[in-house]
Amino acid sequence: MTGREVRVSRREVLELAILGQLDAAPMHGYELRKQLNARLGAFRTLSFGSLYPALRRLTAAGLITEASSDSLPHALAGRRGRIVYRLTDAGRARLAETLATAEPTAWDDEAFDVRFSLFGTTDARTRLRILEGRHARMVERLSMLRESTQRARERMDAYTAELARHGLEQVEREVEWLENLIDTERGTPGAHDFRTPGPAASPPQSRRSSGRGAAGAPSTTTHKEQE
Q1: Whole-prediction pTM value?
Q2: Non-local CB neighbours of 28 within 8 Å, separated by 6+ positions
Q3: What does the pLDDT look like over 69-116, one tens digit per residue?
Q4: Are residues 129 and 155 in contact, defined by beta-carbon separation less than 8 angstroms?
Q5: Which residues 6+ apart lie within 8 Å of 62 measured at CB?
């Protein structure tokens, strides 16, 4: 993959994340950046230098619109002249169209966290396809890591070997986490509230032989960070 392809992909993921955030409520640019940095792992270091060009592109495409905070009520009304961004009907339609798709890009490292954060407004079949695609990707990665680590083990010093072990454990935990989520999705057709105990929010026993228990609730950052 070329450097240009990586940049285009990241831009598209950022624009999807913005549409998803604005679908919940209009936001100032500052609040939007804070929400993306707090909730979406792929954009933890998102700068205004990346955010505002994305907002301009989405505005030019007619997917979002600007409004002065002076014309808005309650919490959105603030410092004079501050711009608030809101989703247009076209933006809402684009978001719905994107969330109904489950292509390989949806389970790439950079896009998966964003798509998972929007599962509450994604249909059950699409959620399952994305989780299964991510699971297959991580199982393949785990196999490759184990093979490469085994080949290079004799040449590793103690610290390199420990780092390799840590990397393997991270991928193993994600595979197990995904298996639990897949089991839950297959058993419950609606969107899940992992914060509320109950039948719909309690994933079944992991399929792994280790029997470490059900998947935990996803955090507001990324699935990798909660490990």
Answers
A1: 0.74
A2: 69, 76, 78, 82, 83, 84, 85
A3: 555 555 544 554 578 999 999 999 999 999 999 999 999 988 999 999
A4: no
A5: 88, 90, 91
